[in-house]
Records
---
Amino acid sequence: MSKFLLPLGAFALLAVVLAIGIKRAPEKSVIASAIIGKPAPQFTLPSLTDPSARVSTAALQGKPYVLNVWGTWCVECRVEHQSLLEVQRLGQVPIIGLNWKDDDAGALEWISQLGNPYAQIAVDKDGRTAIDWGVYGAPETFLIDAKGIVIHKHVGPMSLDIWKRDFEPRIASRKVNPT
Amino acid sequence: MMRAILGAVAITIVLFMRVPAAHAIDTTSIADPVLEERYLKLTHELRCMQCQNQSIADSPVGLASDLRREVHDMLLAGKSDDEIRDFMVARYGEFILFRPRFNARNMWLWFGPGVLLLVGLGIAIRVIRQRSALVAQDDQPLEEDAAR
């Protein structure tokens, strides 16, 4: 009997390790962001809606905000647009748009036709700011806390369900103890 | 005839030599051959995050060309290969490297097979020793077994 104990134990251990691996596999299909828990990459970029203004992360610091990366060429961005408008109506945090490698005229038309959920829209024409944020596909939505730390990133279209599940609790938990 | 064959061989060799440097997607070229070689090496070992089984050198998507531009600009700015890799890892994580770096988290992947081999060898040696000890004690003739 004891002869089989060791191989059986080894097999059980392997089974447990593999079971955990399989269980966790779906969440691994989304690549974890390297900038979570780090200070938000700084940028100062031209504003889409006001040619004389600039959008800068320095000016945003002190309050939590959301950075949403989008482009008119991005199909999924159209999918999530209504949800962004709904999130904006909740009025919890301002949504800052990062218009990624897009055409200004097209982007303005998009906003005027579909509505504008953004408090400000930064124009990232050459994609350098998106690289600093580790963006690999639009839409991506980052949550930045009052201290300017990136605390969450959602890849893919935003929905009200995702907002309530992943963003609201994080905003709420940061509000309790603002240091 | 001989000359024709030699010519064909020479052409074939030249054609194959061009392959590694061929720019199917990427049309960037750097005048300095040393930088050019480092550029090709780096762009082939960085993953395109949008189409994850291609390197940024092989991928036609916009992000890949943006990242190639970053590599190009950093090389010209005199950055080392490691500085460029660190730049990419800081933004996109270790996943962007096709050649994973050795660290505490993946250590067991590197050492695991060796450790398992040693454990296996140890068990095999023990079993073989026990068996040979049994053979030494076994003084019964084989015929007895056959007769039973």
---
Amino acid sequence: MIHKRGGALLACALLCIGVLVTAAASSARTTALPSWCGPKKIKLGFTDGFGGNSWRLVTTASARAEAKKCPSVSSIDYADGQGNTQKAISDIQGMVAKGVDALVVFPDAGKAILPALRSSYKAGVVTVPYRVTPGGRAGVDYNVFIDTPFAQAGKNWGRWIKRVLPKGGNVLMLSGPKGNSQGVDENKGLHKILDPTHKYKFIGEQPFEVTNWDPALTQKVLSAAIAKYPKIDVIVSDFGPSLVGALPEFTKSGRKIPALATSDGNVLGCFWKKNVAKNPTFKLYTVSTQNDHARLAMDWAIALATGGKKPATTHFPSLVFEDSTTGKPNPVECKSKLPGDIYLSAQLPAGVQAKLVKG
Amino acid sequence: MTVATVALFASSMLFASSSVTRGTLLTMLPFASALAIASLGQTLVVMQGGIDLSVAGGLSLYVVILTKYPAGDNSRLWPAIGIAFLAAIGAGLLNGWLVGRMRLNPIVATLGTNALLFGVVLWYTAGIPTTTTARLARVGGGLWLGIPAPVYFAVATAAVVTAVVKLTPVGRRFEGVGANEVAARTAGLGVRRHRASAYVWAQILYCLAAVLHAGIVNQPTAYEGNNYLLPTVAAVVLGGTSLLGGRGNLVATAVAALFLSQLDQFVLALGVSYATRTLVQAAALAVGVALYTINWGGLTRRVVGRRTTNPAPT
């Protein structure tokens, strides 16, 4: 799911700073046109492989909000593949037939989508897939692929674990379906940071315990791990909100909730606030769940189609969001009046997200 | 079934002692209870020679009604439960009408209803999960006298359903219709009505299972019912109820649900890979089903008989 690049550490740090600066700069001048917005009028298409959860709703709304910043975009068409690869393919073909000038694609089905992307690209539509790698090559099958280095999230977690558990400890990692490339890459990043110290032991199934990102299975897997391992010092998970139902298993077994390195979600922040007093070991560190990845893809598609300035990078970095131990870059956030299924790390304001997910 | 379950717990203690610690049991038992109640519903349908594939869509729908309608507000929980049970009766009547009156094949009819129910789930939630209300979470995750609250619901439900089916005239008629349709019709029993009623009662039981499940899983997805489709059928078969209809072993079904849930925890605790876990589960199911469905006596006789009648050529 990622492009493997060497010399990642320094480049990643530079990228983080670069994106932060760009973000700060673009919010400072809200009235000026973004540099990626060129003069040529275009029709824009946006297709999703699967649009039916709160993360996708917020991501789609973020993409729309980004496109609206550019007045050269005269219309935005959206199609949801509903988890059906065949529909996702015909959605792309439909967009091309409708005559869109630029097309942003979330290719959930991966390589199965490649022929549709290629035919869109060959038809002269600016084609920009993002997040899930469709295979193929930029400039041959599509214009550019906007990826995110998942290993970087693993490295971020690893560095934090080294800081909060300097003496070492037992690390339990949970991810989605068996062998999913996101989990595999995150695990590699984690190993890269923790292995040289020889102080950390990875417990449970390797590279990660399989939860399918399903809350019920997460609960069963975690309770089995709690019973099997008398000492779990830190849990690493790439879907923080799915742990909210499972973490009370520690309390049920008469143990304290350990440190947690994961991705953000309002429900998780609120859970931390409620439980930290009774669980002093429960330290929380989150990376952004990356709803704004879609914005970078939009910027690229619009820049290429309207003749604007290309963004500096095709990689959307893993950004640290909350750290309960330092409060930097943010302390743990909880908006208890708003739904649990919103993501405070996203640029889209919390109130707007709340309206979206409440439907 | 009881013997198999006892054997499983014994081997759990021997090979994976961590799967029978208090903490693990407290996690496993609520899931087992919800599965037991849903499986009792499936048993009623199977006793009428049918099968209910709409358990996935139904359970998913009731779970989202129970979480999204109150949206965290405890005072709206009771109305939500009411709406969920009404929806369950509606879904059951639809199945009953399709199978009982229109004489559709149960697999086709309930598969259709299942798609319809999932359609409603997606229309209502757009696939977005909602966190369970605190009151429901206290029931699903709570302990009464040191035992998970859902266990009481499962035991009570199993007792009531068994008592009604085995001890009351209504229940005996219900079983009679399932065992022999022609005989039942000759005896003047309303075959269609009994058939249809099985689907309604099944959905009501799924709804009760959904109430527990929504409480156990704090943030259920919109597709929770999928976790129940195969396990309910497996529990019915392991419980020894024939898929051709007739007498139902209700208590055995409930015990089978416990067996399946403990099997889950057992293979998790073994610490083997996900692939091995799936294989162990499949093997256990195959053995369990084989015990009931293969005519072992006949098979032995055939094998032995063949040996004696066909001497090896010299």
